Amino acid sequence: MRKLENFPYQQVLVLGLAKSGTAAAKTLLRNGMKVRVNDKQLSEKSTIVQDLVALGAEMVLGSHPLSVLEGIEIVVKNPGISYENPVLVEAMKRKIPIVTEIEIAYQLVPELLIGITGSNGKTTTTTLTTSMLQESNRPVKVAGNIGIVATEAAENLAEQEALVLELSSFQLQGTIAFRPNIAVILNVFQAHLDYHKTLENYKQAKFNIFRNQTEEDFLIYNADDDEIEEQVKTARAKLIPFSTTKKLEEGVWTDGTSVYFLDEKVINLEKIVLVGNHNLENILAAVAAAKLAGATNEGIERVLTTFTGVKHRLQFVDKVHGRLFYNDSKATNMLATEKALAAFKQPTILLAGGLDRGDDLSELIPHFKHVKGLVSFGETKEKLEKVAEEANVPIILNAENVEEAVKVAYEHSEENDVILLSPACASWDQYRTFEERGDMFIQAVHKLL
């Protein structure tokens, strides 16, 4: 088990437990730090609380009193806790550093650390990169916003094992020294403004992924995104751009028939089974990260000729009587749905709807050109019906939920149609998570068999 060799703090407040807080607290305690834990939800009877007490943690439960900051040198916060929390506001006044647990994970990884972020495509790119390294017999673990907690993975890394982290803006905002050897930034679009308050705050959190990189590191970025291209001019790392539209002498690109890393051909496009131009961007980024980390072309090809998508992210579910069903429940905003629709050329019946956040869904209209039908559900179903009417969609129907929408769509479809769940909305009006919504879709499709 790895040790924190250079962590310069001894008195630590862990604010909020859940998975990341629990893992961080345990790691800190095992490394001899004095840890105070403050959690509003858990009680003394909780198994998690009892485990931490047994390791020597001081627990403050049930509320967030400002007294928890007494004697504290650094705060490790749960990524989901707002910076408007009174304890964090007071910590900032006292100039106490505030981090998320990926800062601790970073301190544990002396070998290769790969960090991947972006508004869309993080999970797919992280999964592809990890799989390419595994297929190339490169020892690797994956963690962060996907799979296990980063600190837990880092603490248990084997010698010479790489760590691939999927990183959210919430995690990246809480960094001080965090420095991946290979950083990937896919795209930055408007998101999570309820947390970050402004688009600029959100973007700067994302750009933290390369702030501390040096000339020894690599920064893989989307050269088709003008703002990202402008931002990376301040980076000190070696720049590795990727593009689906132009040839790059020092990057990863495609000429429409093959994928190239620098001047080396890696794979023919026709062999790649993952659909969508947005996924081609993810593939290029993953190829760059994997190649820099030691992947072989053979390992990369084995992944790209078999990988059909991450669950709930434009995932091919099944072919039922000639209809192709795709689960894109992770599409919780319009941009994700626009990209999903762009992945298909054949007639498509779109299943969409969910939590009404007040968005102007008419932005979807230009992307409905090959949508032959809409089945809407949830709080936004009337809004989406109006959008479909303006877009002259021939079939406009609604359903009570995703399960019923599958049945309705199938009844109005024809052979070779795509039936696509890509809601453009969060799931919380009817489902606890987008994963639950996607699972309901998958179950409903299988009932048609």
From TrEMBL:
| GO terms, molecular function | UDP-N-acetylmuramoylalanine-D-glutamate ligase activity
Source superkingdom: Bacteria
* Mur ligase central domain boundaries: 116-290
The alphabetized UniProt keywords are: ATP-binding, Cell cycle, Cell division, Cell shape, Cell wall biogenesis/degradation, Cytoplasm, Ligase, Nucleotide-binding, Peptidoglycan synthesis
Sites binding ATP sit at 118-124
What does this protein do, in the record's words?
Cell wall formation. Catalyzes the addition of glutamate to the nucleotide precursor UDP-N-acetylmuramoyl-L-alanine (UMA).
The enzyme's E.C. designation = 6.3.2.9
Keyword Glycoprotein assigned to the entry: answer is: no
The protein's name = UDP-N-acetylmuramoylalanine--D-glutamate ligase
What species is this protein from?
Answer: Oceanobacillus luteolus
Entry's Pfam families?
A: Mur_ligase_C, Mur_ligase_M, MurD-like_N
What is the catalytic activity of this protein? Answer: UDP-N-acetyl-alpha-D-muramoyl-L-alanine + D-glutamate + ATP = UDP-N-acetyl-alpha-D-muramoyl-L-alanyl-D-glutamate + ADP + phosphate + H(+)
Q: Does the keyword Cell inner membrane apply?
A: no
The family annotation for this protein states: Belongs to the MurCDEF family.
Q: In which pathway does it act?
A: Cell wall biogenesis; peptidoglycan biosynthesis
Cite the Mur ligase C-terminal domain residue spans from the record. Answer: 312-425
**Where is this chain primarily localised?**
cytoplasm
Localization terms from the record: Cytoplasm
